[in-house]
Amino acid sequence: MGEEVCASVILKKGATVTEADIKAYSKGKIAHFKIPKHIFIEKDAFPMTASGKVQKYRLREMAMQRISSLV
Question: In whole angstroms, what is the distance from residue 59 CA to residue 31 CA?
Answer without folding.
Answer: 23
